[in-house]
């Protein structure tokens, strides 16, 4: 009996050790239970049998048998999953922006285990693996950081960080792995990063914002971008919206060699698919999948559509899919595209030969949505605008701002484009707009949809849902905290300079704004001279300043434009004042 018990104990111990070696077990979730999963990213497994889906709303990973079109398992991986990166050996890396973690996972059929977790800086959004699979890089929006991870077997460690001059999002290794391309989350900047030194080589700029996809062509000689372009010279009337002059949505094919050479013409030998045409806009492109050497499919999150385009052939073959498509993958047979729909918890199937949607299946039943969740759907809905050219998100990227100017009747006139304001942390800073014309967020929602976007009458309940969502948008932590540059002594000195110069007249704490209009010695092109001061909270996350974006740094606000200082400041005093502002 004793020998039998010993053998049983030994077998149990061996089993536990084997499970430990394979990874920590994860909790399985019943996919038949109502939830709001909000699928955000999707991978096709290396054997082509399964779809792996990252769910932002629940932090789960759904495993789908693509041929049977059914969920075979759902695993609780984190608090929110927004991105998946495929790795060798049936492994993948998942990003959790809420827990601020990179999670290394291993999949065998429908089983999922955790191999490692690594803490990350605030707001991780994208990861990319080097061609040899040994290095991983993660982009983090608000700290403006890249984090280099080392993958050694099943061990994952953070090695180095790099601070960029803009907020990064999409990242892509070029084929040799020597250079990493990094796209701006808000504007049109593109960084080239030397991976040997993990250092910034160069920053290029091109006319774009909301760069939401960046992939290599099949032969790896071109880079495909999906983005938007806001024309500050156009006005938001029905004519300019109809012709796509105000907001265009684009799928671009750019020669990789030209992208990698800062001295070369970025657009040389390039090609652009307009995602939209008069009468039929294609607001908010979200993802790209390459089909073959000449074709790609792009999803339009704002209009709930997908479009197939051929290189050097204008126009897209479009089809309706689900609500707010977020990710697309192409089957190994190149006959079907699978599209994850972020706001209706489903997967759509598009026939790539006919460019028609042939079906849709659910990831599970959806629960009833809250007013805030309905507001988020409306915020990203380009169908609220005339012909579907733009959504609220198109200008207020992730609730923030693309930093550009727009001539949009925000001041009850055309002819004086105004800088697009961030919505983050603005719930208690009424009135809204540069001239303070909207007394509430609901009033501003009516004005934006009905007058700027020309989308027709907005129902009061929809305006309130939009207001509830906008009021929920939090400020990120101050940039000095996120970048580890917080200097209490300098900040205290800068605060005294702020007080001595009576900056609190317009920017009174704790909101660092006031509800009145002030003449600060500037006027717009319509001769308006009095403006409502934007809150200074979160100012370190902005790149342009003043009503017309004339200043491109906080130092320029004072050194070039002499903004409201009572006395001249020494260089050190100005530095401390700026450090104080960045701490807000």
Automatic annotation (TrEMBL):
A Gene Ontology molecular function term of the record: heme binding
Signal sequence, start to end: 1-23
Subcellular location, principal: other
Residue span(s) of domain Cytochrome c: 370-474, 489-584
Phylogenetic placement of the source organism: Bacteria, Pseudomonadati, Planctomycetota, Planctomycetia, Pirellulales
Name of the molecule in the record: Cytochrome c domain-containing protein
Localisation per UniProt entry: Cell envelope
SUPFAM superfamilies membership: Cytochrome c, Nitrous oxide reductase, N-terminal domain
Assigned GO CC terms: cell envelope
InterPro entries linked to this entry: Cyt_c-like_dom, Cyt_c-like_dom_sf, Cytochrome_c_Peroxidase/MauG, Di-haem_cyt_c_peroxidsae, N2O_reductase_N, WD40/YVTN_repeat-like_dom_sf
Domain of life: Bacteria
Alphabetical UniProt keywords: Heme, Iron, Metal-binding, Oxidoreductase, Signal
Keyword Heme recorded: yes
């Amino acid at each position: 009996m004793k020998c039998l018990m010993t053998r049983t104990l030994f077998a149990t111990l061996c089993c536990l050790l084997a499970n430990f070696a394979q990874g920590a077990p994860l909790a399985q979730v019943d996919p038949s239970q109502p939830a709001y999963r909000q699928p955000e990213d999707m991978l096709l497994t290396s054997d082509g049998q399964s779809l792996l889906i990252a769910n932002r709303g629940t932090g789960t990973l759904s495993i789908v048998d693509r041929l049977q079109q059914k969920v075979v398992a759902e695993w609780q991986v984190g608090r929110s999953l927004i991105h998946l990166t495929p790795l060798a050996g049936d492994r993948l890396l998942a990003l959790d922006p809420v827990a601020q973690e990179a999670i290394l996972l291993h999949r065998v059929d429908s089983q999922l285990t955790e191999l490692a977790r690594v803490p990350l800086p605030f707001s991780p959004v994208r990861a990319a693996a080097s061609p040899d699979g040994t290095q991983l890089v993660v982009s983090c929006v608000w700290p403006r950081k890249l984090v280099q991870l080392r993958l050694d077997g099943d061990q994952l460690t953070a090695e180095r960080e790099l601070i960029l001059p803009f907020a990064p999002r999409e990242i892509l290794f070029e084929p040799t792995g020597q250079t990493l391309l990094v796209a701006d989350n808000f504007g049109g900047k593109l960084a080239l990063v030397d991976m040997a030194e993990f250092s910034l080589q160069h920053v290029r700029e091109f006319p774009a914002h909301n760069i939401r996809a960046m992939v290599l062509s099949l032969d790896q000689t071109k880079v495909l971008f999906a983005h938007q372009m806001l024309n500050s010279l156009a006005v938001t009337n029905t004519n300019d919206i109809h012709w796509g002059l105000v907001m265009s949505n684009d799928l671009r094919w750019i020669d990789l060699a030209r992208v990698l050479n800062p001295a070369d013409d970025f657009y040389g030998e390039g090609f652009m698919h307009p995602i939209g045409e008069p009468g039929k806009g294609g607001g908010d492109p979200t993802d790209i999948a390459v089909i073959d050497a000449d074709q790609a499919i792009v999803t339009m999150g704002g209009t709930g559509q997908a479009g197939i385009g051929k290189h050097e052939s204008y126009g897209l073959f479009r089809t309706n899919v689900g609500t707010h498509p977020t990710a697309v993958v192409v089957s190994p047979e190149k006959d079907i595209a699978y599209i994850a729909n972020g706001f209706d918890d489903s997967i759509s199937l598009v026939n790539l030969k006919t460019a028609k949607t042939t079906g849709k299946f659910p990831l599970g039943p959806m629960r009833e949505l809250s007013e805030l969740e309905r507001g988020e759907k409306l915020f990203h809905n380009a169908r609220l605008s005339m012909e579907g050219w733009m959504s609220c998100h198109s200008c207020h990227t992730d609730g923030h701002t693309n930093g550009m100017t727009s001539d949009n009747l925000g001041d009850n006139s055309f002819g004086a484009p105004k800088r697009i304001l961030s919505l983050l942390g603005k719930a208690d800073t009424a009135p809204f707009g540069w001239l303070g014309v909207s007394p509430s967020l609901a009033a501003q929602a009516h004005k934006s949809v009905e007058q700027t976007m020309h989308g027709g009458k907005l129902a009061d309940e929809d305006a309130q849902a939009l207001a509830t969502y906008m009021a929920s948008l939090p400020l990120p932590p101050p940039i000095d905290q996120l970048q580890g540059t917080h200097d209490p002594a300098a900040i205290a000195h800068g605060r005294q300079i702020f007080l001595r110069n009576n900056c609190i007249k317009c920017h009174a704490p704790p909101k660092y704004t006031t509800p009145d209009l002030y003449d600060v010695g500037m006027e717009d092109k319509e001769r308006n001279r009095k403006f409502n001061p934007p809150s200074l909270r979160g100012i370190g996350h902005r790149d342009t300043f003043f009503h017309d974006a004339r200043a491109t740094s906080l130092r320029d606000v004072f050194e070039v434009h002499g903004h409201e200082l009572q006395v001249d400041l020494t260089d050190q005093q100005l530095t401390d004042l700026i450090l104080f502002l960045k701490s807000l």
